[in-house]
């Protein structure tokens, strides 16, 4: 896998409705179509998206594109199903939105695929199976399934399987409900492949995949008096190889690493990762922009990345005093924080992603820009997900934002950025340079030019 500075990214595919369907307020005419999560499975053959309408759409890589030389990253719709429906909590007079907050794939154990999906309150385990044969030649039933009269049975037939058109079925295997008072923001599968965690604003619960009627509370930061509440949990994730270790981030800009071997209720963390604030940058917005919106372990398990409003930070698990690397995503917005606060954009929650060998980091920005950082060369790249670049194999041109003075030809003024167009959700193929970027109601797939 090449370094980010050595890659020329080109357009591969776009899935979804056209961008002209987006209103001036940034909402799609079909609110339900807005993508709310993106996730590759373990081998990258499947790509799942969840939307605000509670649907899960699974894309499967075309066998021809994988076997061709060079390999191509072409995905087509494999299965679509309704994962969650809108509900109403009558005790609290509260509507429960159907929006899919997170999707996590389970390692494949047999011919079927399995994934976890969650909305604000309920986690579900789905099984996705293929069927291309059906039984035929019954003795007691006719071709339409009706029971035959005994007088019509004149000979004994051996039933057989008859080839049919491929049918992909999604069926709910488990429903993990009634365990969260607040909105679920994270689910993470443990490396033991038997348990997973679900985290909301104040609590994190541990589940066994086979048990749906109970879970164990492993983190609870709810104060006795809610008026004393100073922070909330924003993201949580298990370590990729140590089944006893997990981390969770907070709205105060801290990351806590917990070890379940120390105690059942992990209220006392084993380590806390926090960067001291620079007093010269202190402002009214400091606490808001320091809130961590996403945290991810590297595939090796040695590092963490965290995303706050303006930057991505890389942490070494062996050093909790400060990050080992800090990458500015859109520092040019620091002077715009007041207007971003007024239009609520300052509360946007951007995700981040590692590439397969932990040498590059990707995260989103505004104006449908997304950023890539190469940890080896320290080079960074700004690209745009736009339908103007959707010609086959079209190479993406790096974009630059002009913060003042005379604007060059290829630059865009910071005052011209469209804050209604934002890249919140991204995913990177686990072994290849193929990326998926969600831009409102469109899913863009890009890949390394040299692999096209």
TrEMBL record:
PROSITE patterns: PR55_1, PR55_2. Pfam families: WD40. Keywords: Repeat, WD repeat. GO terms for molecular function: protein phosphatase regulator activity. GO terms for cellular component: protein phosphatase type 2A complex. InterPro entries: PP2A_PR55, PP2A_PR55_CS, WD40/YVTN_repeat-like_dom_sf, WD40_repeat_dom_sf, WD40_rpt. Belongs to the phosphatase 2A regulatory subunit B family. This is Serine/threonine-protein phosphatase 2A 55 kDa regulatory subunit B.
């Amino acid at each position: 896998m090449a370094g980010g500075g050595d890659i020329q990214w080109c357009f591969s595919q776009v899935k979804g409705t056209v961008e002209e369907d987006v209103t001036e307020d940034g909402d799609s005419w079909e609110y339900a179509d807005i993508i709310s999560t993106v996730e590759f499975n373990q081998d990258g053959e499947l790509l799942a998206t969840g939307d605000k309408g509670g649907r899960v759409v699974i894309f499967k890589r075309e066998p021809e594109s994988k076997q061709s030389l060079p390999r191509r990253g072409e995905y087509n719709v494999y299965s679509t199903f309704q994962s969650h429906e809108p509900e109403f909590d009558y005790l609290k007079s509260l509507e429960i939105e159907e929006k899919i907050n997170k999707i996590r794939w389970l390692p494949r154990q047999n011919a079927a695929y399995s994934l976890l999906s969650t909305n604000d309150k309920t986690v579900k385990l789905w099984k996705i199976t293929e069927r291309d044969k059906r039984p035929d030649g019954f003795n007691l039933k006719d071709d339409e399934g009706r029971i035959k009269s005994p007088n019509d049975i004149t000979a004994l037939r051996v039933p057989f399987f008859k080839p049919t058109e491929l049918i992909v079925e999604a069926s709910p295997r488990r429903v993990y409900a009634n365990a969260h008072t607040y909105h679920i923001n994270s689910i993470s599968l443990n490396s033991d492949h038997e348990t997973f965690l679900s985290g909301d604003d104040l609590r994190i619960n541990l589940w066994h995949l086979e048990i749906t009627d109970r879970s164990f509370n492993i983190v609870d930061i709810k104060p006795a008096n809610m008026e004393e509440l100073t922070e909330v949990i924003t993201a949580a994730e298990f370590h990729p190889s140590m089944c006893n270790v997990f981390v969770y981030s907070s709205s105060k800009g801290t990351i806590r690493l917990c070890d379940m071997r120390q105690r059942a209720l992990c209220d006392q963390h084993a380590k806390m990762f926090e960067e001291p604030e620079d007093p010269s940058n202190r402002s009214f917005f400091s606490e808001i922009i320091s809130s961590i919106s996403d945290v991810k372990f590297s595939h090796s398990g040695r590092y963490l990345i965290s995303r706050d409003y303006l930057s991505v930070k890389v942490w070494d698990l062996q050093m909790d005093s400060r990050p080992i690397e800090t990458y500015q995503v859109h520092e040019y917005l620091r002077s715009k924080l007041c207007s971003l606060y007024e239009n609520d954009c300052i509360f946007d929650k951007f995700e981040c992603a590692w590439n397969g060998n932990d040498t590059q980091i990707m995260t989103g920005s505004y104006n449908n820009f997304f950023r890539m950082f190469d940890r080896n060369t320290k080079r960074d790249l700004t690209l745009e997900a736009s339908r103007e670049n959707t010609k086959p194999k079209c190479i993406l041109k790096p974009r630059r934002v002009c913060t003042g003075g005379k604007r060059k030809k290829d630059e865009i003024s910071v005052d011209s950025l469209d804050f209604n167009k934002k890249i919140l959700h991204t995913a990177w193929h686990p072994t290849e340079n193929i990326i998926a970027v969600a831009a409102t109601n469109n899913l863009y797939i890009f890949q390394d030019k040299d692999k096209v």
